[in-house]
Write a structure and sequence with these properties.
It comes from Desulfopila aestuarii DSM 18488. This is Diguanylate cyclase (GGDEF) domain-containing protein. The N terminus and C terminus are likely disordered. Helix 1 packs across helix 2, helix 3 runs parallel beside helix 5 and helix 3 runs parallel beside helix 11. The chain is α/β, with parallel strands linked by helices. The relative contact order is 0.11. The structure holds ligand C2E and magnesium ion (MG) (3 copies).
Length: 289
C-alpha cells in the first residue's frame, strides 16, 4: 500500500513538473520570435497626484501571440529573464516607451513623467548605463522625465555595484522608484544609502487597506519612511474611492490603479490625457458629502 501511494504521488508530481517544463519551453520558443513578429507592445497606466492631476504614466509590457493569445507579464517575464531574452526585450521596452512618449510630447505640446520597469538581469548588464543614455538621447526625451522602477529583488545582487549604477543613473537626472515596496529584502540602512526618489506601495497592501489593520499600519509606516527620507510615496492598485480616501488621509502623494484608469494602448493615451480629469465612479457621491 505504502509503495503504491508513493508511486502514485510521484506520478502526479512528475506530471505537473513535465507540464510546467513544457509550458516554459513552449513559451520560450514563441518568445524568441516575438520581437521580430511584432508581438510585443506597451500599454500606459496613468498616475495622479492628490489634486487628481495627471502627472505621468507607468509603461507596461504586453505580449500578444497568435497561438497563445495575450500572455500576462508575470508568466513570460520570468521566462525572458531565465533564458537571457530579457536584455533584448528590456531594450525594446526602453526604446518603444521613449519613442512613444516623445511622439505624445509632439502631439500635445507638453510632457509627463514616464516610469519604466527594469528587470534584475537588465539592470545587472554591464552595458545598461551606456544603453540607457543612448536610447534616451536618440528618443529626444529629457532624462529628467524618466523614472526607472526597480524592485527589492535587485538587492540580492552586489549592493556596491547597484549603488554605483544607481548613483550614475541618478546623476543623469533620472528618477528612481522602488516598486512593490514592502514585499522584499530592503533594510532601512540600504534605503537611506540608495538614491531613491519614490516608494511604490505594493498593491497587496492597498487591496486590504479597508479591512486589515496590519496592512493599514504597514502603509502608514511606508509613508512615514518615505517622508523621513524625502521620497514621494505612490500607491499602486487603487480600485475604489474608499481606498483613495484612506490613502489620502495617510498623506500618500500619488496614486495609480483601475479606479483612475486601466493601462491604455498608446493610441488611446493622448485622448484620455486631453479629457483629464475624467468623471470617476463615485465622484458624484463624494461631492455631495
Ligand atoms: P508592477 O510593475 O507592479 O505593475 C503593476 C501591475 O498592477 C500591472 O500589471 C498593472 O496592470 C496592475 N494594476 C495596476 N492597477 C491595478 C488595479 O487597480 N487592480 C489590479 N487588479 N491590477 C492593477 P501587469 O501589467 O500585468 O504587470 C505585472 C508585472 O509585470 C509588473 O508589476 C512588473 O513587475 C512586470 N512588468 C510589466 N511590464 C514590464 C516591463 O516592461 N519590464 C519589466 N522588467 N517588467 C514588467
Ligand atoms: Mg512597476
Ligand atoms: Mg508595482
Ligand atoms: Mg506590483
Amino acid at each position: 500500500y505504502e509503495s503504491k501511494r508513493l508511486k502514485h504521488s510521484f506520478h502526479l508530481f512528475s506530471d505537473s513538473m513535465q507540464e510546467g517544463y513544457l509550458n516554459r519551453l513552449e513559451l520560450e520558443r514563441h518568445l524568441r520570435t516575438a520581437l521580430e513578429n511584432d508581438e510585443l507592445f506597451m500599454v500606459y497606466q496613468p498616475q495622479i497626484d492628490t489634486q487628481g492631476e495627471f502627472v505621468g504614466v507607468e509603461s507596461l509590457l504586453r505580449w500578444n501571440n497568435a497561438e497563445l493569445g495575450l500572455v500576462p507579464p508575470h508568466r513570460f517575464i520570468p521566462v525572458a529573464e531565465s533564458s537571457g531574452l530579457m536584455i533584448t526585450i528590456g531594450n525594446f521596452v526602453l526604446t518603444r516607451t521613449l519613442t512613444q512618449m516623445q511622439q505624445l510630447q509632439q502631439q500635445l505640446g507638453r510632457t509627463w513623467q514616464v516610469s519604466i520597469n527594469i528587470s534584475v538581469r537588465q539592470f545587472m548588464q554591464t552595458t545598461f548605463l551606456e544603453e540607457l543614455k543612448q536610447i534616451v538621447e536618440a528618443s529626444g526625451m529629457s532624462l529628467t522625465h524618466v523614472t526607472l522602477e526597480i524592485t527589492e529583488s535587485l538587492f540580492i545582487e552586489d549592493v556596491d555595484y547597484i549603488l554605483h549604477i544607481l548613483e550614475s543613473v541618478h546623476r543623469l537626472g533620472v528618477r528612481i522608484s522602488m516598486d512593490d515596496f514592502g514585499t522584499g529584502y530592503s533594510s532601512l540602512s540600504m534605503l537611506r544609502k540608495l538614491p531613491i526618489d519614490e516608494l511604490k506601495i505594493d498593491k497587496s497592501f492597498v487591496d486590504t487597506i479597508l479591512n486589515d489593520r496590519a496592512a493599514r499600519k504597514m502603509i502608514q509606516n511606508i509613508i512615514a519612511i518615505g517622508k523621513n527620507l524625502d521620497m514621494s510615496v505612490l500607491a499602486e492598485g487603487v480600485e475604489t474611492v474608499e481606498q483613495e480616501a484612506m490613502l489620502k488621509s495617510f498623506e500618500c502623494d500619488c496614486f495609480q490603479g483601475y479606479y483612475y484608469s486601466k493601462p491604455l494602448p498608446f493610441e488611446e493615451l493622448g485622448g484620455v490625457i486631453c479629457q483629464w480629469p475624467r468623471t470617476l465612479p463615485g465622484t458624484e457621491l463624494r461631492s455631495t458629502v
